[in-house]
Design a protein that fits this description.
Distance between the termini: 55 Å
Number of helices: 8
Radius of gyration: 32 Å
Oligomer: single chain
Helix content: 10-25%
CATH class of the largest domain: Mainly Beta
Strand content: 35-45%
Structural class: mainly beta
Number of domains: 2
CATH superfamily of the largest domain: membrane protein fhac: a member of the omp85/tpsb transporter family
Largest sheet: 16 strands, antiparallel, barrel
Number of strands: 31
Strand order of the largest sheet: 14-15-16-17-18-19-20-21-22-23-24-27-28-29-30-31
């Protein structure tokens, strides 16, 4: 064999080793971005094409908790009995029970000896102080108790015994001022009732969906009229429809709302927390809320109805052709989820993946997720093991290896509504990748990596047809490797490292990298949409293959094989136009294919045109390595998506002079997911 042939073969062997180390199983495990659980999609493999894996609920889902909007102002009724009103004020009615037992009633109000650690009473007193700016305090020796004296009007009304506290809100004051001008300070009883309607809508549009303003009986003195505001506080909460979930677990997201004013945002977040529970995610409707009058005056009762899945397990099987040609192009993966195994809204998942053509790869994984403290926090832990043998013409080198990972992460959802979601994650991943030749260890990469990430999802109607919404997802993360921590390799120039730089320095366990991603789904006319996808990473360090960015494959430039190149820094940009099938819009997909969600063939099938581009750079490259590389491609896509079966196919050709290493043009990728139950 010539010297050139030996050099080419050795370069190919080095490239294969680096690719197989990182990608012979399912690809990078828990290292490409924030570890954020998606509330409404089955757990997926490496899905080709642009994906928003935290989709918003279906159209109309929000109607269940929008609350009640009072009809707009009625047409004015002729009435000669008008009075002059120069001042309108709104007072919030606070149940007297919140004062009694803690405060001594005076002629015009209360004197309270309160403990500043009493949060419930402190919130009420804060409202009082905003209104009156008047307090008389006397501290005890410990400086904890305060004597507070204030004046309020407490009366027995048809709703019970309440104390009226003025509402201080500049926007409300402006509304009342404009009403006085509109009516020219002359009001009939019908006009004043209409003003109450406006005040009610004012608070409901500001998230207080059950607040109600009304005109109490009164004598107009000094041309002044009072409007009372009765808060809709959350009272009894009941649950029905549950089979395997205990009521206290389902109602836990609503615990923080007890005895508090009902707001749309907090009720929505609590409902979506329930939607995220394992065993509800794939159900047809998951959960819904119903408000009804509570037995206690001034409170609203709530009924939570859940729709659990038929079985406590989810079993999925997926097939794709995105593997390595040296450890197995075709991959089959079996995933089993055990929902709510301990009754705490947790989930235990197991995965088994095998390669074929050749059958030289085996992957195993266990993952456990559990809410902690509140439903907004989730802890995840897991382990995975990937074994591989190098096949094809390189089999004579007798190379094999194993990659093991352990991880622990904490996820926090800061807020989520039917339109937006913000979450964060922090975690630690331990990685150990070992390569052997003739049973002798030739390289071993051991890393301890801290991960910090933010994930944001939003929707809007910019340029979208009526009834359709756009989606935007942004995520950023920072990964920090710490050499020598928990058995990791040395921070710099580690002796057993699998990568050597151009100056002879070996990669180590200390590094930093910044990862970013964005997906925009823009709706257009005639069931068409435009996808814009950007992701990448930046690192100034000499990275091991476990941490490098992969260029090429179904999740990158689709005209090239999976992980055609690995780079320390790089970016990927994709533009894709897609459309639902314009035919068969009325023909329903059979239930044995579609699952629990009813859809038509026209909506389930999508066709697309796309263009991909990626560029990447190596730090401290070897003489036989290109410091930078650029890949471009364009092609066609076909997709089919239902709750039980989904499939994505792409056919793409390179644009430019860079030839695919597998000499295939065009490149074809397919991914199929069967959700058995």
């Amino acid at each position: 064999m010539s010297v050139v042939g030996v050099r080419q073969r050795s370069r190919r062997l080095i490239r294969v080793l680096t690719l197989v180390l990182a990608f012979s199983g399912i690809g990078q495990v828990h290292s490409a971005g924030p570890l954020i659980p998606g509330p409404a999609m089955p757990r997926e493999m490496d899905a080709p094409g642009p994906v928003l894996d935290i989709p918003l609920p279906e159209e109309g889902a929000e109607e269940a908790i929008k609350g009640f909007r009072v009809p707009l102002k009625r047409e004015r009724v002729p009435d000669e009995n008008r009075v002059e009103v120069n001042r309108l004020s709104v007072k919030r009615l606070i149940p007297i029970q919140q004062f009694e037992g803690k405060c001594a009633k005076t002629e015009r109000g209360f004197t309270c000896d309160i403990n500043l650690q009493d949060d419930a009473l402190q919130q009420v007193l804060d409202e009082v102080l905003k209104a009156y700016r008047k307090q008389f305090a006397m501290f005890d020796q410990a400086g904890i108790k305060v004597r507070l004296t204030f004046d309020v009007d407490c009366n027995h009304t048809e709703y019970g015994e309440f104390c009226a506290v003025p509402v201080q809100d500049p926007a409300l004051d402006q509304l009342l001022k404009s009403v006085l001008q509109e009516y020219e300070n002359q009001f009939s009883i019908f006009d004043l009732e209409d003003v109450s309607v406006r005040v009610t809508n004012f608070f409901r549009e500001r998230d207080r969906i059950l607040d109600t303003a009304f005109l109490p009986p009164q004598t107009v003195e000094d041309a002044s009229v009072e409007i009372h505001l009765l808060e809709g506080r959350l009272g009894k909460v009941a649950v029905k429809g549950n089979k395997r979930y205990a009521p206290e677990v389902l109602l836990k997201p609503f615990d923080k709302l007890a005895d508090e004013p009902v707001t749309r945002s907090e009720i929505t977040q609590s409902l979506l927390n329930v939607w995220d529970y394992p065993g509800l995610r794939l159900a047809e409707r998951r959960a819904q809320l119903t408000f009804y009058p509570d037995e206690e005056v001034g409170k609203t009762a709530l009924e939570l109805e859940v729709f659990e899945e038929k079985y406590p397990f989810n079993l999925g099987f997926s097939l794709d052709n995105s593997g390595s040609e040296y450890s197995g192009i075709y991959r089959g993966r079996l995933t089993l989820d055990w929902n709510n195994p301990t009754g705490a809204a947790d989930r235990l998942s197991a995965s088994l993946l095998g390669n074929a053509s050749p059958s030289n790869g085996r992957f195993y994984a266990l993952d456990y997720m559990r809410p902690i403290m509140t439903p907004d926090y989730h802890v995840r832990m897991g382990v995975s093991r990937n074994q591989f043998d190098i096949g094809q013409e390189l089999e004579v080198f007798e190379i094999d290896g194993v990659t093991e990972q352990m991880y622990l992460t904490l996820d926090r959802v800061f807020w989520q509504t039917f339109r937006t979601r913000l979450a964060a994650s922090a975690g630690l991943t331990l990685k150990d990748a070992q390569t052997r030749q003739t049973n002798i260890v030739t390289a071993q990469d051991k890393l301890s990596v801290f991960n910090f990430g933010l994930d944001f999802l939003d929707s809007d109607e910019l340029l979208a047809p009526a009834g359709r919404s756009n989606q935007l997802r942004l995520n950023v993360a920072y990964h920090r490797g710490v050499g020598g921590l928990f058995g990791a390799m040395e921070g710099e120039n580690a002796p057993n490292s699998s990568r050597t730089g151009g100056d002879g320095t070996k990669a180590g366990g200390s590094f930093g990298k910044f990862v970013f991603g964005a997906v925009r789904k823009q709706q257009f006319f005639a069931d068409t949409m435009l996808w814009l996808r950007v992701n990448g990473q930046y690192s100034p360090d000499l990275l091991l293959s476990l941490e490098q960015m992969a260029l090429g494959g179904p999740s990158s430039v689709r005209a090239y094989p999976t992980a055609e190149f690995l780079r320390d820094s790089g970016y990927f940009l994709s533009l894709e136009w897609s459309s639902n099938l314009p035919f068969f819009k009325e023909t329903v997909v059979p239930a044995w294919i579609a699952g629990s969600t009813v859809t038509t063939w026209g909506r389930a099938i999508t066709v697309s045109l796309f263009a991909d581009h990626a560029s990447g750079w190596l730090n401290n490259p070897l003489d036989n390595e290109d410091e930078s590389i650029a890949l471009s491609g364009a092609g066609l896509g076909l997709g089919f998506n239902t709750s039980r079966f989904s499939m994505n196919m792409s056919l793409a050709t390179p644009l430019g002079d860079q030839e695919p290493s597998n000499e295939r043009d065009p490149q074809f990728f397919v991914n199929m997911l069967f959700q058995l139950f």
